[in-house]
Request: fold
Amino acid sequence: MYEKVVQILEGYTELKGSAIKPDLLLVEDLGLNSVSYFSIVFDLEDAFGIEIPDDAAKNLKTVQDLVNYLEAIA
Reply:
């Protein structure tokens, strides 16, 4: 699951592969803005066949937060 999240993130940031660490902050470290952040959420929803409510999405701050959330609802 982590690998798929990284693959999706690579499409929105200049960092690639192992440079994307679990503890990186999505906005501050990866340089995502609100539009790209919610595009990632949509991509994750499509990739995993789930729906991430907006209130839950707003609380996902790090790469690991994304992975933990996806693992919890999978």
Remarks:
- Residues 60 and 69 are 8 Å apart (CA to CA).
